[in-house]
Amino acid sequence: MIVTIDGPAAAGKGTLAAKISEKYNLACFDTGMIYRAVGLKLIIDGKNVEDEDSALGVAQNMTFPLMMELSKHPDFRSSAGGNAASKVSAIPSVRQALLQMQRDFAKSPRFPDGRPASGVVYDGRDAGTVICPNADKKFFITAAPEVRAMRRYKEFQQKGISTTYEEVLAQTKERDARDSSRSSAPMKPAEDAVIIDTSNLSIDEVYQKVCEIIDS
Ligand code: C5P
What we know:
By secondary structure, the chain is of the alpha/beta class. It is 52% helix and 11% strand. The protein is built from 10 helices and 5 strands. It has helices at 13-24, 32-44, 52-60, 64-70, 79-88, 92-104, 127-131, 145-158, 165-181, 203-215, and strands at 2-6, 27-30, 120-124, 137-142, 194-197. Helix 2 (32-44) crosses helix 4. The chain is globular and about 50 Å long. The protein binds cytidine-5'-monophosphate (C5P).
């Protein structure tokens, strides 16, 4: 079974994908990680994240082990990491270079400890539209920018990352605008996706809703 969960940053996709992964024995692919890995590698190498040649070079050499290694870096989940990811992900050739790696994951899905899985749950922006247009179930999870910014701000606070709510809100809106207006694979719900606005829902309510739809 292939399940896709797309939507903007901090809508609750990651938490939902983890719960779905556990319940249905599906390997989870957080596709934002590969864009974060490419963006962070460029920053570490002192390159401009908007320079196509540099970004494409990194994307063409991106592998799962390198992505996992980079994910340990303190900036991987920071605002700087998210912004760099959003910039490299707007470059069409970079998206193209990373497409096969994302599709191939579903050919022989495995959990991080090597156990085989019964399928994949993708967490991303274009999983239902581009990566797996034939997925069994597609969801588009969203929430008001103010609600998402507050969730992200609280996460940063818990991790001891110094920032303000206003700064996180501005970055959330900036990333939304870039993700939905880019020419290649803009963020949008697949025609056959179920759209869920989580602004006034708890994670458990969203999870129940999604499970009902999968089970049906
Ligand atoms: O989901 P996450 O916040 O980790 O993603 C970081 C950035 O990577 C997003 O803002 C988006 O610009 C980009 N991205 C993408 N396509 C995906 C996943 C993430 O363009 N499938």
